[in-house]
Design goal:
By secondary structure, the protein is of the alpha+beta class. It has 2 helices and 4 strands; from the N terminus they run E-H-E-E-E-H. Strand 3 and strand 4 form a beta hairpin. Helix 1 runs parallel beside helix 2. InterPro entries: RHF-like, RHF/RaiA. This is Ribosome-associated translation inhibitor RaiA. It holds the Pfam family Ribosomal_S30AE.
Length: 100
């Protein structure tokens, strides 16, 4: 699976890219037909401590799953998004199986 990581309003470091690739790579064990993933990391201009937004779009055949999380750190947001995507992929896989 190809993971595209894009940073908006800041420069991304290699550790964060590696962490993102590692976390999203685990999604393939829940649904093996994932085409690609796009990850958008943003720093919102607010005085809130939770100003880091992670948006993940996962493309599967015939559909696109989108998760958006706002947290204190990007790592926390990626973890949270990965857990949500895990559940979504399992549900999607069950739906696909129901049609077969």
């Amino acid at each position: 699976m190809k993971v595209n990581v894009q940073a908006v309003n800041f420069n991304i470091d290699k550790k964060l890219v590696d962490f993102t690739n590692e976390k999203l790579g685990k999604l393939e064990k829940y649904f093996d037909k994932i085409v690609a993933s796009d990850v958008f990391l943003r720093v919102e201009n607010t005085s809130d401590k939770e100003n880091k937004t992670v948006e993940v779009k996962v493309q599967v055949p015939g559909d696109e799953l989108v998760v958006k999380k706002t947290c204190k750190t990007f790592e926390e947001g990626i973890d949270s998004a990965e857990e949500s995507l895990e559940r979504m992929l399992v549900k999607h896989k069950e739906k696909v199986r129901a049609y077969l």
